[in-house]
Amino acid sequence: MTDIPAPAPLLARRRPPVSDLLRWIFGALIVLGLGYWLVGEAVANPERFAQVSVIGLSNGMIYALVALGYTLVYGIIELINFMHGDNFMLGSFQAQSMLADGSFQLPLLFFTISIPLGTAVTVSDSAAQKAFAIGLTLIVAMAFCMTINVTIERIGYKPLRAQPRLAALITAIGFSFILQGIGLSWKGAGRVPVPAIVPDTPLIEANGIVYYDLRDLMVLLITIPVLLGLTWLVQRTKQGKAMRATAQDRDASAMMGIDVDRTISFTFALGGALAGAGGVIYALYVGTTYFTLGFRLGLIAFTSAVLGGIGNLTGAVLGGILIGLVAAYNDGFGDARWTYSIIFTILILILVFRPSGLLGERVPEGQ
C-alpha cells in the first residue's frame, strides 16, 4: 500500500504569502496617512472642515441615487449599464426645460417637440409655486427617464440576454454615445443654466460662516424619502421579492411562476426613476448642466457602486457618500486637479484589497 504523505503543519498552510502581507501593510499606511491629513485639517480649520463635509455629503447623496441605478441593474442581469449616467444627464436637461421654459420637451435626433406645462418659475415666485414646480418636475423627469430606460432595455438588451455579456456591454456603451448625441442636439455643447429657485438661505450659521443652507436641506428632503422608498419596495413588496429571486436564479424564478421579463423591465424602470430624480436634484443644487455630465458623473457613481459593493443597495449609498466626501475634501483642502485621479485610485485599491466592495459578498464564479 502506498504511503500517504503527512499533511503540512496547519500553521504553515495558513500562513499568507509575503506579497499579501506587503499589500495590506501598504493599504494600512495609505489609510493612516489620509486619516492623519484629515484630522490635521479638521483641527487647524474646523469651520472650513464642517462646510466641506456638508458639501461632500450633499454631493454624495446625488452620487448614491445614480449608483443605485447601476447596482439595481447589475444585481438582476449582471450588466454594467453604462448609458445610465447619460440618462441622468437627460433628466437634468428635462428639469432645466420645465423650470426655465415651462415646458416638457421630447428630444428626437434632429428636432425637439415642446409641450407647454406652465412650470417656469423665477426667484421672486412664492414658495408654494416653487414647491409645485419642483414636485411636478421631479415626477415628469422620473417618468421621462423611466421610459428611456425601459425602451432601451426592450430594444437593445432583451435580445442579447442569451448572448455573451460582452455584446450587451458594447451595446450599453453604444447607447451611451447615442444619448450624449441627443443631449448635444437638444441643449448644445455649452453649460445650460438652471433657475436658482432654491436659494442658499442659511439654516445653520455661526460667526458669519454658513454650515448648512436650504439647498443642502432640499437634497436631503428629496433623496432620503426616495432611498427609503426604494429599500421598502425591494425588501417588502411582492415585486421586490421577485427582483431578489430573479437576481439569485432566473431559471428557478421562472419555474416558480415569476415573470422574469417583467421583473427585469421593472428594475430598469426603477433605475430610470432614480436617474431622473438625481438629474433634478443635481440641476437644482448645482445650477447648471451640460451634455457630457452623464459620462463624468456616471463614472463617479459607478465607482461608488463598486466601492460599496455593486449589487448591494446599502453599499451603493455608502459608496456614494464616501466618494462625495473624498472629492469634497480634496477640492477643499488639496488640489482639485487631482480629484478624479484620487477617486479612481480608490477604485483600483478597493478592487485589489476587496474585489467585492465594502459591503459586497464574495460569490463563486458562475453563480
Describe this structure in words.
It is a single chain. By secondary structure, the protein is mostly helical. Helix content is 69%, strand content 7%. The protein has 13 helices and six strands. Strands 1-2 form a two-stranded antiparallel sheet. Helix 3 (46-77) packs parallel to helix 7 (214-236), helix 3 packs across helix 11 and helix 7 (214-236) packs across helix 8. The longest helix is centred in the N-terminal third of the chain and has 32 residues, at 46-77. The chain is globular and about 55 Å long. It starts with 9 loop residues before the first helix and ends in a 14-residue tail after the last helix. The model is unreliable at 363-367 (pLDDT under 50).
Summarize this, please?
The chain is mainly α and 367 residues long.
Note the topology.
Layout: H1 10-14, H2 18-44, H3 46-77, H4 84-101, E1 103-107, E2 112-116, H5 127-157, H6 165-187, E3 192-193, E4 202-206, E5 209-213, H7 214-236, H8 238-248, H9 250-255, H10 260-286, E6 288-289, H11 293-308, H12 313-333, H13 339-353
Antiparallel strand pairs: 1-2, 3-6, 4-5
Residue stretches low in confidence (pLDDT < 50, at least 5 long) are 363-367
The strand order across the widest sheet is: 1-2
Strand content: 5-15%
Bulk shape = globular
Query: What value does the Rg take, in angstroms?
Result: 23 Å
Spell the H/E element sequence.
HHHHEEHHEEEHHHHEHHH
Specify the number of helices.
Answer: 13
Total beta strands: 6
- Oligomeric nature of the chains: single chain
Structural class: mainly alpha
